[in-house]
Amino acid sequence: MKKILVSTALLAGVLSYAGGFRVSLQGVKQLAMAHTSAHAEDASVAFFNPAGMSFIPSKLSIVAGGFGASNKVTFQNLNTLQSTETDNPIGTPLYAAVAYRPIENLSVGFSFTTPFGSTIEWPGDWEGRELVQKLELKSFYFQPMVSVKLAPWVSFGASYIYAKGKVDWDKAVTQFGGELNIKDEKASGSGYGFGFYFRPDPKLDISIAYRSPIDMKAKKGTATFKFPSASIYPLLGLDPSTGQDKFTATLPLVEEYTIGLTYKVTPKWLISADFNYHGWERYSKLTLDFATAPVGNQPDPTVLVSPKNFRNSKTFRLGTQYAFTDMIFGRLGAYYDESPYTDENFIPETPSFNTYVITGGVGFKLKQFGVDIAGGYALPQARDVRNASLGFNGQAKAKAFYFGLGLSYNPF
Q: Is 125 helix (H, G, I), strand (E, B) or coil?
């Protein structure tokens, strides 16, 4: 019984929904310029800073887009030299936004994004199968917002965030030749965002924004155990016909601070820079409460507490755009994204790396319509994995690339 308690305790690593990373894919135009934020040409600025809506040149703006995200993670045991690679499907983050200015100094809008989530799939028989075999994470942010122009050169904006999330995770329980599935499709939480957008000079845009943490509450999650012998189920207080138990948890998504600048060097050439600060430090532990199964590690055997030991992290971004004509725009960028945990806290459920990313793309403007294409190639830095608490040691490497297509419409 002790062995299954230890094995099951590892499941808490999956339930952050973000897992130590966030998806920087909320605007195709922005991605092409290193996902910088101080751009107020259309409604795509709404997710980054609601105050930017006041500086959109058209009264009504509508945008939508999608991405393909491909990534592979390789883990090598340095003692056996055995190497294992994930077989992840292509992720498809989406976004859409609308902004409308009913009166001169007031703008309202709505943004839909998927800022956290991915799917990772390891071979079913790999050495870390008790930690994870397959993990699917999804999140959806719904943000109504408002922006007020305080003066011709500055605006203030705020948004309410309603978040929905899903987790579907498979792992092995090798001690009994079984499997465990953790699933919840109705986790939810709420938060807010606000920001200031400045244009003190026609050549300079400054964006300062804050997005609050969100506690995703899973109230009716399901844990499904599958064992070859029915005699194991009564040990966990489970019905052998279903092998299921319920759990509840509060799952933290972290806050983010952003400062962005865009400077028009010439009428055709601009340069953008961003600094992001992510408050991952609040994700120090995760508490999971089962209904009946005694698979915890606390005085109450149904309560499981898993230490995470995450730390705050930073991202540095630099991008540029050049207008070849009034209709064709070229874009380039690069950014560096810190991992929020050390090698000693590496987890294969949601692997994270210190990463350099190179981006680029083109944009086409056809009167009120715009079409944007972007791509990015990530260069994650290899990690020497030394997670003693999980008994997980070796070297982890990764590679990833992104591509996206975005549409915009500014009718009037």
A: coil
